Amino acid sequence: MGKKDKKQQKLKARLPRGFVDRSPQDIRATEKMVSGIREVFELYGFDPVETPMFEYTDALGKFLPDSDRPNEGVFSLTDDDEQWMSLRYDLTAPLARHVAENFNDIQLPYRTYRNGWVFRNEKPGPGRFRQFMQFDADTVGAPGVQADAEMCMMMADTMETLGVRRGDYVIRVNNRKVLDGVMTAIGIGGDDHADTRLTVLRAIDKLDKFGTEGVRLLLGAGRKDESGDFTKGAGLEADAIDTVLAFVGAGGGSNALTIANLEQVIAGGDAGQDGVAELKLMAQLFDAAGYEEDRVRIDPSVVRGLEYYTGPVYEAELLFDVTNEKGQTVQFGSVGGGGRYDGLVSRFMGQPVPATGFSIGVSRLMTALKNLGKLDAIDVAEPVIVCVMDRDIESMGRYQGFVSSLRSAGVRAEMFQGNPKNFGKQLQYADRRGCPIAIIQGSQERDEGVVQIKDLIEGKRLSGEIEDNAAWRESRPAQISVSESDLVAEVQKILAAQAEDRKTA
């Protein structure tokens, strides 16, 4: 086989579309943010639980396409029993399965949180990935809207714990029962109109993006965008569109005024009255707990796209301005949301099981916090490097001993593992890695029982200040000789000084 044939067989390294490799900085920043979220959830009395990434496909819900190969929207495969399994689409459906399967052993109300990866077999695009992380909290077995109100308050507390100031966020709250009342009033209630209702929900959800007139088009015949692409509308009559827009626009200057407006919109019919009553109770709970309308606001334009919501729905929205990919100044928007889904667990149980919860989009929230300058990676110092000067067994053992002593004292450290022939290459590696200190012991230092400690941070600073070689040799910058027994203490002393320099820089 010739060289050409071998070259053709070379495997091409390709990252699958819609997926990303994550850097140490991204991973540590995520851990820091997730730790803050977890702190709030634990404070509220929620406990962690973890479900697997795979579920049997039929457990994931009716929103999956009905086809011979249920691989549209989700990633699916068959196991050795020829049953379809899918990577989880969200964290809510797996929780419903977990609760139903362990119902007799679970203490209700069941208050739990989870975070992990979810997967969507959808077309990737800018900011749209096939794998992303969510962080959910749910209460199962609590029928009263006080559980929904608590979710909204916990979302507000989470935003502030992560450094989002009041005025830069709001938790917006609505109730699907009120919207269902409007749907019934305009003649699209019942199972026969499920598709039309979903189109109406999606149209309302575009209010922030397209404005009232854009939504009016989507509620009617449809809307053509700037590129000429046409989106078919819900096909509602003009008076029905006016009713829906009156509902969406019922938000007032206060929660009390919004509720009064909603009562007028649904006046004359029983449908929706329960939803308004629930919103009224939630507003009272927010007020009693000190969550004013700048933090939690009743807003009829919140609909949430999923069909399984049955009562209160809510979203965490960030209000500060960012520049989008078109160069336009827009508000950042939603970073999470949820609502009441009393029917999801019931699918497995044959009996009503009330539940409510919300989900935070971790990657999106991370982007927001970076925009606000509120999220840096956890400060993990790069390791102290022990250089390899001699490769005989005794010397290598001593180097490894230095590393072990440093690690035992809590100092991140490593022995150089590359080709040790060129000492300059070792220092070059340390420089590129950002190592703060190099430990050097050649045969002469070993005979004297000492080590050289080179402060690489200070050395780099001094090298910029010293211009000629004579001054460099004379200064011996940032390098000291200490006895082996003093190695750990001296390293800790230098690291402490470096940390203090960073604070005052």
Describe the structure.
This protein is an alpha+beta fold and 505 residues long. It has a domain at 384-504: Anticodon-binding domain (Rossmann fold), CATH 3.40.50. 41% of the residues lie in helices and 20% in strands. It contains 18 helices and 18 strands. The strands form four sheets. The chain has an eight-stranded mixed beta sheet. Strands 15-14-16-17-18 form a five-stranded mixed beta sheet. It has a three-stranded antiparallel beta sheet with strand order 2-4-3, with no helix packed on it. α2 crosses α4, α5 packs antiparallel against α10 (273-288) and α6 (194-205) packs antiparallel against α7. The longest helix has 20 residues, at 24-43. It is elongated. It starts with a helix and ends with a helix. The mean pLDDT is 87.
Record the strand order, biggest sheet: 1-5-6-13-12-11-7-10
CATH architecture of one domain: 3-Layer(aba) Sandwich
What is the 3D form? elongated
Quote the beta fraction.
15-25%
* Class from secondary-structure proportions: alpha+beta
Count helical runs. 18
Mean pLDDT across every amino acid position: 87
Largest sheet: 8 strands, mixed
Strand elements, count: 18
Low-confidence segments, ≥5 residues, pLDDT <50? none
CATH homology superfamily name of one domain: Anticodon-binding domain
And the CATH topology of one domain?
Rossmann fold
Quaternary form: single chain
CATH class of one domain: Alpha Beta
Rg measurement, Å: 30 Å
For the termini, the CA-CA separation is: 60 Å
